[in-house]
Design a protein that fits this description.
198 residues, mainly beta, Porin, 8-stranded antiparallel barrel, 2 helices, 9 strands, 61% strand
Length: 198
């Protein structure tokens, strides 16, 4: 079975190979806001970090994350689209589906960027063996970062953000008959992602 990180790298490679066909739709001048509105896509891979206060001191939990953004750029300061992704938390695999906003502040080759994703994290891909039931919840992820134009109608991205994701896990009590324990998760993690724009 593939590890979560191997799955992320495989998806990133697959998207990068298919994006070359779509590069003709978006020029670097579009990224700078000097042409008409057009399609914009982004792929970002990284980690979500959280202090682990329940275990040994000075430790942290980290989980891989992948985000795909497909949208329409109205202006360099405003792109609107949909995001889908995978967040590999220890307790549950969450697949967030959200409305996303992206913006680039400057017309220079290197520019600060911002973004906000808000939506719902589903758990339909999560493993529910041994009668464990997972349920998703709402999600929000504001980010700030940098964009570097790379030629060939692409740009590299780096961003930091703060992701809040709600989820619920229900599992049977080992010693009880038809008794269940429900645990509500509120994941609050620093997000750090690298990616590219096409």
């Amino acid at each position: 079975m593939k590890t979560p990180f191997t799955m992320l790298l495989s998806l990133l490679l697959m998207v990068s190979l298919t994006s070359s066909a779509q590069n003709n739709q978006v020029a670097n001048s579009t990224f700078n806001g000097t042409t008409a509105s057009s399609y914009v896509g982004m792929v970002e891979v990284g980690y979500l970090y959280q202090d682990n206060k329940n275990n040994a001191p000075n430790t942290a939990d980290s989980s891989p994350t992948l985000i795909l953004f497909n949208g329409y750029q109205f202006h360099r300061l405003f792109s609107l689209g949909a995001t889908v992704g995978l967040d590999f938390y220890n307790q549950v695999l969450v697949s967030p589906v959200a409305l996303g906003i992206r913006g680039t502040l400057l017309t220079t080759r290197v520019s600060p960027t911002f973004g906000v994703d808000a939506g719902y994290g589903t758990t339909f891909l999560s493993d529910e063996s041994d009668n464990i039931k997972n349920k998703g919840g709402w999600m929000v992820n504001p980010t700030l970062g940098m964009r570097v134009l790379a030629g060939n109608n692409t740009a590299f991205l780096f961003n930091l953000g703060y992701k809040i994701q709600r989820a619920t896990t229900t599992e049977p009590v080992p010693w009880g008959n038809n008794m269940f324990i429900t645990e509500k998760h509120s994941f609050k993690r620093l997000s750090a992602r690298l990616g590219f724009m096409f």
